[in-house]
Design a protein that fits this description.
alpha/beta, 8-stranded parallel sheet, 19 strands, 608 residues, 4-stranded parallel sheet
Length: 608
């Protein structure tokens, strides 16, 4: 053990904010026969060496022999060991590969820190995750959406020392499943439909007047500390306990997803707030058009909803919030409103309610009717919901989730991703807040305590709480400066897409010229390596990226499937991918430009 190395490593960990991981527990180092080092890990009656005690280099060659290093990969390394495999991976992997290094065993980490210099693992490729499972998963969930990681996410490659798998095999399998769920969730959130993003832009700006006139959610932040909030979904299990919910009125915040408006009305329950997020006309037609929202119910949701929804409930108080990490919403919040309406709201109205309850600092957060799967006989929703249906439970293409009793129930891709969002957000909450699943059925949600609703109300909903309605002021006067700023920002965005359109056309001309000439490896290399202004803008302008990120990342994924080895076949394949990518960029630019022109006409017409 080298004390000098350990002191240097301590300084590095302090800079990373990880000094709390250091302890006085570590393994005794032994020399291997090839003059490297190893240590012995005793588990039950087995004595396991973390690295080979005979030949570490042969062990490394065996570990990496089946990996294609000519591609850009996302490597997930389980266990730091003594770092030999990590250092070799840094050296062998491509420049655009990313390495996630995970270590949960602090005794192993502390052994490494007392033996090897941490600087050997310094690389722009590597991201290190130390700590317990919840902390590691929370950190990975933040990085998985990184714009550098997403293009290589399908080249996911676990790297596991055989010794580490012997020690922690069950945990590694468990974490691999969780990471794969995150990857699927990342693609669900990414989206690749420019048309859908354009609809979002239109709705946001056509609701700009409403957004400016209605108060910011900042006025209610942290205003319900340690007060219970009940989120009511429209799952089939709601029929079991809807009759019990009335007892919580006035003693807990009752947050309704838009699909249960009529159900609550039939049961004489007035929700404190109703939540919507969908941008299509279907939400208005199904849940608002033929229903009347109680005058004491607040509407909470983003301005991406159809204007018909806000017009229908024009006499209700509203808190229009914006989606954190959704770059169009952040642009509106920061550059137009100069407010702080951002919350991390996911992609369903239940997620908006969940995020809002956290924003209020409510505790506990209680889930009711939140099945996120179908019943065992295929019922999709509660009996009074306008979109109730029955699916074929015998369909071989069904996907399944584990319910609260351990039974497998059918679900949809959307519901499964909604479930992942809730589990990730609970994992990210490192505080003491309680999450209670009082659905009395449906999918098992990791991180929640399962209770029946009657018991929850008896234990947690015992005192009168202040009305949310009384906490929210009425509309304010329209700020014309902010409205004009919105128009100005839209005009600037239109100019950016005009420039992108010109650049994409020029790039397509370059590709066309290459296709009509004899193959020239230098010209091909220069074209493929060239960092176009299009790539630069997509990577560095968040608002533009929101429209084109699906096209960009899917294009990069296709390129990353092709080897980086320089030869005629690989280059021609990559050029085909790049041509298709540029065509899609050009088509999308035209669509966005036309949409912005129409939005500007509508916004100007309103104040003529």
């Amino acid at each position: 053990m080298d004390n000098k190395i350990f002191v240097e490593n301590l300084c590095i960990l302090k800079k990373l904010g990880k000094q709390q991981l250091i302890s006085d527990k570590y393994f005794d180092i032994e020399k291997s026969l090839d003059r490297n080092y190893t240590f012995r890990y005793d588990i039950s009656d087995k004595k396991i060496y973390i690295n080979s005690k005979y030949n570490v280099n042969n062990e490394m060659n065996t570990l990496f022999k089946n990996i294609d290093f000519s591609k850009n990969n996302l490597f997930v390394v389980y266990g730091i060991g003594l770092g030999y495999h990590v250092k070799k991976l840094i050296d062998m992997s491509s420049e655009d590969s990313v390495i996630f290094l995970i270590e949960k065993d602090m005794k192993i980490l502390n052994t490494y820190l007392r033996c090897k210099n941490f600087t050997e693992l310094r690389s722009k490729k590597i991201v290190i995750f130390f700590g317990d499972e919840q902390e590691i998963f929370s950190q990975i969930s933040n990085y998985i959406f990184n714009f550098k990681v997403m293009p290589i996410i399908l080249n996911y490659t676990p790297v596991i020392l055989s010794s580490y798998y012997t020690i922690y095999g069950n945990w590694i399998d468990h974490m691999n499943k969780k990471i794969m769920k995150l990857i699927r969730h990342a693609f669900f959130n990414l989206g690749n439909d420019v048309k859908d993003t354009i609809i979002g832009l239109q709705n946001n700006f056509l609701n700009m007047k409403e957004l400016i006139e209605n108060p910011s959610i900042e006025i209610v932040k942290n205003s319900y500390i340690n007060k219970p909030a009940i989120i009511v979904g429209a799952g089939p299990s709601l029929d079991k306990n809807i009759k019990d919910l009335k007892a919580a009125q006035g003693k807990a915040l009752i947050f309704a997803t838009d699909a249960v408006i009529s159900t609550l009305e039939k049961n004489d329950i007035i929700p404190d707030a109703v939540f919507s997020i969908e941008r299509g006309i279907e939400t208005y037609n199904k849940f608002y058009k033929n229903n009347e929202l109680n005058s004491k119910t607040i509407f909470v949701g983003p301005p991406v909803v159809r204007n018909e929804v806000l017009t229908k409930i024009k006499n209700n108080k509203k808190l229009l919030c914006l989606k954190k990490d959704e770059l169009i919403n952040e642009w509106i919040n920061n550059d137009i409103l100069n407010e702080n309406r951002l919350i991390k709201m996911g992609s369903s109205c239940a997620h908006v309610a969940f995020a809002f309850a956290k924003y209020l600092n409510a505790d506990p957060i209680i889930l009711v009717g939140m099945d996120l799967c179908y019943s065992d006989n295929g019922v999709t929703h509660s009996k009074d919901v306008e979109v109730k249906n029955v699916i074929d439970v015998d369909n071989k293409d069904n996907i399944y989730v584990k319910d609260i009793h351990g039974k497998m129930l059918p679900t949809s891709n959307a519901f499964k991703n909604f479930l992942t969002f809730i589990e990730v957000e609970i994992a990210r909450d490192l505080g003491d807040r309680k999450y209670i699943d009082a659905t009395e059925g449906g999918a098992f949600k990791e991180g929640t305590k399962i209770m029946n609703l009657k018991s929850v109300i008896s234990e947690y909903c015992t005192q009168k709480i202040d009305s949310l309605y009384d906490s929210v002021p009425n509309k304010r006067n329209l700020d014309y400066n902010k409205y004009n700023k919105a128009i100005e920002e839209l005009e600037n965005l239109e100019n950016k897409f005009n420039n992108l359109k010109i650049d994409s056309e020029n790039y397509l001309k370059k590709i066309s010229k290459l296709e009509n000439e004899d193959f020239n490896i230098d010209d091909m290399k220069n074209t493929l390596k060239r960092i176009s202004s299009i790539d630069y803008i997509i990577c560095n302008d968040g608002v533009v990226r929101t429209f084109l990120q699906g096209i960009y990342i899917n294009g990069k994924i296709e390129e990353n499937y092709i080897s980086n080895d320089i030869n005629e076949s690989n280059m021609i394949e990559k050029l085909k991918v790049r041509k298709e990518y540029m065509n899609l960029i050009n088509i999308s630019c035209n669509a966005v430009i036309n949409s912005i022109e129409n939005i500007l006409k509508d916004m100007s017409y309103e104040f003529k």
